[in-house]
Each structure stands twice: as C-alpha cells, then as structure tokens.
Amino acid sequence: DSGVTQTPKHLITATGQRVTLRCSPRSGDLSVYWYQQSLDQGLQFLIQYYNGEERAKGNILERFSAQQFPDLHSELNLSSLELGDSALYFCASSGPGTSGRHEQFFGPGTRLTVL
Amino acid sequence: AQSVTQLGSHVSVSEGALVLLRCNYSSSVPPYLFWYVQYPNQGLQLLLKYTTGATLVKGINGFEAEFKKSETSFHLTKPSAHMSDAAEYFCAVSINAGGTSYGKLTFGQGTILTVHP
C-alpha cells in the first residue's frame, strides 16, 4: 500500500458525459501528479500540482482539468468524454517528507470506460 | 525534453535465469532514473532509483540497475528470476524542476516479463 488513495476504482460512463476522479496523497506529500495509461499512448504525464498551485502541464486535453484543494486532495475532471478517453488514470504524490528526492508514490488507479 | 526507450516490449526467461531489461534515456541535463513494476490490475511500485552518487543501485526483490552515463543506459537486472517477477516493468526519467517542485516522470513503453517454470 503506497498510501495514495484514488476513488472510484472503476467508472463506466457514456460519450459526452463528465466525470470526476479523486486522489488523496500520502500524508505530508505536497505534490500531486496525474498520469494516463492507455494501450496506444502508454503512460503519459497529464498535470502536476504543488500545495494547491499548478506546476507543470503535460499532454492534457482542454476538455480535462484538475485542481488541488487546501486539504491537498486533488480532483481530475474529464468532460465531453470520447471513446478514446477510456484508460487507467493514476495519481501519484511526492513531497519534502519523502526519503528520496523525486520519488513518486502511485495510487491504485481509476479505470475509466467510456461506452 | 527527456525521453526513454525500453528495448523489447516482451522478455521471456526461465525460472532461475538472469533477467535483463534494457532502458536507454535521453536528457539534456543530469537525469534521475527509476524502474517501476506494475502487476496486473495494480498501480506502479518503485523498484529502485538513481539520483546521484553510486551508479550501481540496488532495489527491492533482488533487482539492481547500473547508471552508465557514457551509454545513456539504465538497464535492470536480477541474477535469478522467480515466478513472482512476472509483471510489466517501466523505466522512467525525471529532471530537477527546481525548488520545491519535483519533476514529472517520463516513462518508457514498458516491458512485459514472462517467467517460465
């Protein structure tokens, strides 16, 4: 158990819908990262937040947005969903409390299926 | 920008044989390198990491990797494979984004390791 929690574990929805994925980082970690894992694109970085502020953006679509709240949990919002958005979405956390620099701890993921 | 190439999307070994998973990276600045393992329907677990210092790093479950700057490689090895090692392995690179911001991970495409009895 990495200490990073993600809900829900599975999500099935229809095209055009909007969903919210939730992540709680490890205790003491200030950074949250979101990654998408799909068969055709592999593991890709989406976005990073540090202590409530956006720090870095990767290959994140305009239909996707994220935020980190004062209690440090993060949400990834996916809207106008398309079939191609079906993937496994991972959250990871790291922070000054981590024993090794740059070490990211991954949650179990949310599997999104768009029908 | 950094990138990672994992040579071989599938590797098959016999139980007790040497495991060698290859990873080459590209980075314009000194990289931080990682190997993660993913078991079916699970998240990613860190096996080992290289940040600075000793170039031969030891990780969990008997795995180790050697950072070779001249070859831009970070290959993962284990002397004797076990059935429980069957999983997908990802090599990843990050760079120091500065200050309190730790760098994003750029992953290779993954290598599926199969272990035969």
Walk me through what this model shows.
The complex is a heterodimer of chains A (115) and B (117). Chain A is mainly beta and 115 residues long. In chain A, 0% of the residues lie in helices and 52% in strands. In chain A, strands 2, 4, 5, 6, 9, 10 and 11 form a seven-stranded mixed β-sheet that branches. A four-stranded antiparallel β-sheet of chain A has the order 1-3-8-7, with no helix packed on it. Chain B has strands at residues 3-7, 10-14, 19-26, 32-38, 44-50, 56-58, 64-68, 73-78, 87-94, 106-107, 111-116. Chain B is globular, with a radius of gyration of 14 Å. Chain B starts with a strand and ends with a strand. The mean pLDDT of chain B is 91. At the A-B interface, strand 4, strand 5, strand 9 and strand 10 of A face strand 4, strand 5 and strand 10 of B.
Report the C-alpha radius of gyration of chain A, rounded.
13 Å
Helix content of chain A: under 10%
The overall pLDDT of chain A, averaged over residues, is 92
**Can you count the beta strands of chain B?**
11
Number of strands of chain A: 11
Q: Structural class, from secondary structure content of chain B?
A: mainly beta
The run of helices and strands of chain A is EEEEEEEEEEE
Tally of individual helices of chain B: 0
Mean pLDDT of chain B: 91
Give a quick summary of the entry.
Chain A is built from no helices and eleven strands. By secondary structure, chain B is mainly β.
